[in-house]
């Protein structure tokens, strides 16, 4: 009985330290996935960005200090097991009365029940909608970008819109395209947070969707929250090749994942659309820059 209680108590302590260790990640996991285009020109900072553009740079220093990501995933479980084994050895060394053993067994079972209930609730309860500062975008929506069904948050007043010269057709609606691109960026982050694979499938090409679905499975399907604090967009190029249009949009700004430290980010999304107009634009790749 004594050994059983010690073993259960050690396992519960290890579980308690391992549960909070899952990391929140934005759509794509913060790495390149799907289509990659080496010909994409390097983005240039918009001259009119002014003070809002300084925010991502100011956040770069705390972001670097807040990213001990790789090892933390392994240190959590190891620390939990070490603590559990240490307590087990201590109890075994000093002896354990039958009454105290029963009390610890009840406590251990209660802790197990607590962690199981919390895990189940995190999978079943949807997270609240994306928090995105700024005025609403109004009712107008540019054509030729998204599927018919769309709901999204407005774009903040501090966000910037730009286009690279020379790589975009003269009659292309750059402002409307980028506005809708930012709406979709926010929507897809929210869908990724709540694990809405149907919504993500509607907006992504098969090769990128497969990677996103795998990442969702690797995090155990748990919900998370990604707060888009600042979002800038620049249209780098619009090309036609192999029976499809390709548009590359460079996104930058600040994100906060699961109420953590705000972090600057910069990545380029490659969108594709068949030249025959059989369907709208889909995100085919995310490229870190």
From TrEMBL:
Region (Disordered): 29-49
InterPro entries given in the database record: NTF2-like_dom_sf, Tim44-like_dom
Pfam families: Tim44
Bias (Low complexity): 39-49
Transmembrane intervals: 74-96, 103-121
Isomerase as UniProt keyword: no
SUPFAM superfamilies per record: NTF2-like
Claim: Acyltransferase is one of the keywords in the record: no
UniProt domain Tim44-like: residue ranges: 158-288
UniProt keyword annotations, A-Z: Membrane, Transmembrane, Transmembrane helix
Gene3D superfamilies: 3.10.450.240
Stored PANTHER family: BLL5807 PROTEIN
Record protein name field: Tim44-like domain-containing protein
Species in which this protein is naturally found: Sulfuritalea hydrogenivorans sk43H
């Amino acid at each position: 009985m004594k050994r059983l209680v010690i073993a259960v108590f050690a396992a519960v302590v290890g579980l308690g330290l391992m549960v909070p260790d899952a990391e929140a990640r934005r759509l794509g996991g913060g790495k390149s996935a799907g289509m990659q285009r080496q010909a994409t020109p390097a983005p240039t900072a918009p001259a009119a960005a002014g003070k809002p553009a300084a925010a991502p740079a100011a956040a770069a220093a705390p972001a670097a200090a807040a990213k001990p990501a790789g090892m933390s995933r392994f240190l959590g479980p190891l620390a939990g097991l070490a603590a559990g084994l240490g307590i087990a050895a201590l109890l075994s060394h000093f002896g354990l009365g039958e009454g105290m053993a029963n009390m610890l067994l009840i406590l251990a079972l209660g802790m197990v029940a607590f962690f199981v209930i919390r895990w189940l609730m995190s999978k079943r309860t949807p997270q609240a909608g994306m928090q995105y500062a700024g005025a609403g975008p109004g009712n107008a929506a540019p054509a030729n970008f998204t599927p018919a069904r769309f709901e999204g948050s407005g774009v903040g007043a501090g966000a910037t819109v730009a286009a690279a010269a020379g790589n975009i057709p003269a009659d292309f609606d750059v402002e409307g395209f980028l506005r809708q691109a930012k709406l979709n960026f926010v929507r897809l982050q929210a869908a990724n947070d709540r694990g809405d694979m149907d919504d993500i499938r509607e907006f992504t090409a098969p090769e990128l969707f497969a990677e996103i679905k795998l990442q969702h499975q690797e995090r155990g399907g748990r919900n998370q929250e990604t707060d888009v604090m600042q979002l800038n967009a620049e249209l780098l190029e619009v090309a036609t090749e192999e029976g499809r249009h390709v548009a590359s949009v460079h996104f930058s700004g600040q994100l906060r994942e699961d109420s953590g430290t705000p972090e600057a980010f910069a990545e380029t999304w490659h969108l594709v659309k068949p030249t025959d107009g059989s369907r709208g634009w889909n995100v085919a790749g995310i490229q870190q820059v």
